[in-house]
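A quick aside before the break. I want you to see a complete sequence-to-structure record at least once, exactly as it would be stored in a machine-readable document. Don't worry about memorizing anything.
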Amino acid sequence: MAEYTINSTLTSNQEIQVPILGLGVWKSRPKECFEAVKFALESGYRHIDTAAIYGNEADVGAAIKESGIDRKDVFLVTKLWNADQGFDEAQRAIDVSLKKLGTDYVDMYLIHFPVSGKRKESWRALEQIKKDGKTRAIGVSNFMVPHLEELLKETDIVPAMNQVEYHPFLQDTDLKSYCNEKGILLEAYSPLAHGQKLEDERVTKLANRYGKTNAQILIRWSLQSGNVVIPKSKNPNRIKENAAVFDFNLSPEDMKEISNWNENFRTCWDPTTVV
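That is the input. The structure line, written in tokens, reads:
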């Protein structure tokens, strides 16, 4: 993967090309979100991930517009929030998101969380939203294997992507294998475990060996694992640092070592408890 670039893509089962590295904007307040997205786009990013609940869709859209980059060249993702799940509710929610984003469509629309009693109707709504041309592809977020199995019994459209917390200290290999089997791209959010494991001595050892930062080691591992990765930052130096991961490869031996680091260490919500 050393020959890849920030704009290299993975192909989803819905025949859409997803840039392997993107910018996450969770917890980025509106003005700082605008500046972060604008800087990321200037730095070569072409994949921006937001959500209705983040409260910054308008700033994401404004930054894309001001960048001067053609809308078709930016892969834009947003998500259906829990309170808006359901068939009619989701139809209204996408229109609100599109208005805030200042665009006629998004490239990927995700169900943000597998809400009990609502997710099936929400998926039916996403199917219609895709047919209506308001999104190029549809997927899910925080879905575990049982949620995906349930969904696939109800639909002929397999989610293009499943966005979940994934990093060396949280490796759900069963979920990863299932997604691979079904052609679902796994997108890793919180690839740095919210910084809580950034100074782990094992990461530091590898960073010193490769002459890279600890964050770059963690991001590179996720990329080489075949994931789409969306590290979050509003700091210009970190945004650039997170993208400087395409000039080296972790060796097979080091990839194997990291595969043994799993601790089931979650830093966000735990969807395994949702039935």
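Two observations worth writing down. Residues 108 and 137 are 5 Å apart (CA to CA). The beta strands are 9-11, 17-19, 23-24, 47-49, 75-80, 108-111, 138-141, 161-165, 185-189, 228-229. We'll return to this after the break.
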